[in-house]
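Exercise (ungraded).
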Amino acid sequence: DQQVKQNSPSLSVQEGRISILNCDYTNSMFDYFLWYKKYPAEGPTFLISISSIKDKNEDGRFTVFLNKSAKHLSLHIVPSQPGDSAVYFCAASNSGTYKYIFGTGTRLKVLA
Amino acid sequence: EAEVAQSPRYKITEKSQAVAFWCDPISGHATLYWYRQILGQGPELLVQFQDESVVDDSQLPKDRFSAERLKGVDSTLKIQPAELGDSAMYLCASSPGEETQYFGPGTRLLVL
C-alpha cells in the first residue's frame, strides 16, 4: 500500500515557466512533509518543508502548498531553470517519529 | 558545509558474496538512517538509529542484512550473502533530531 503517491512519473516544462509537482498521501496522521531534489548518482538534497499547521511555505523560487482536507501537496517552481532538471521526491511523516515515507518521484525536465 | 559521507560510492559483487557499506553522519547528528532506493522508486527505510540504538528495523531483511552503529557515530550496513535483487542505491541520512534529514551521496550496488 503506497501511502505517499506521486502520480506523474515525468514532467517537461519550458524554461521560465512554472513547474508544478504533485504529491498525494493517504495517512491522516502525516503532519510534516519534505521535498527533495535528486540528481543522477547523487543523494537527495533537501529543498523545502511544510508542517500541517501551515498551508503554504515559500523559499525563493520554491513554494509548497498543503491541502490537508484533500491530503494533497504541491511544489511550485517559478521560474523554472534548466538546472532544476532532476527527480523530485516528496516525503511525509508523523512529526516526532522522524520516520519518513517517500513517494516514487517525478522526473522534471526544464527545456531551454 | 558539513556533509554525510558514504563509501564506497560504487560496488560490484557476485551473488552470495558479502558486502559492507560505511556511513559517517554530520557531526552531532544523533539520528542516522539507512535507505534502499531501487531504480524508479523512492527511498525505503531499512533501519533508523538514535545514537547507538536501533529505533526501527522493521523493514530490514534480517536474514541477510545487518547494521550497526557501535559508538553512536559512524555506521556500517552489511549484506551477506548478496542476492541479485539487492542491486540498488543504498543511501545514508542523518538528522540532528529535527524533522529534516540530510542525505549522503549513496552507494550504488550491482550484484552479478
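Further reading is listed at the end of the chapter. For now, observe: Chain A has a mean pLDDT of 94. Chain A has no helices and eleven strands.
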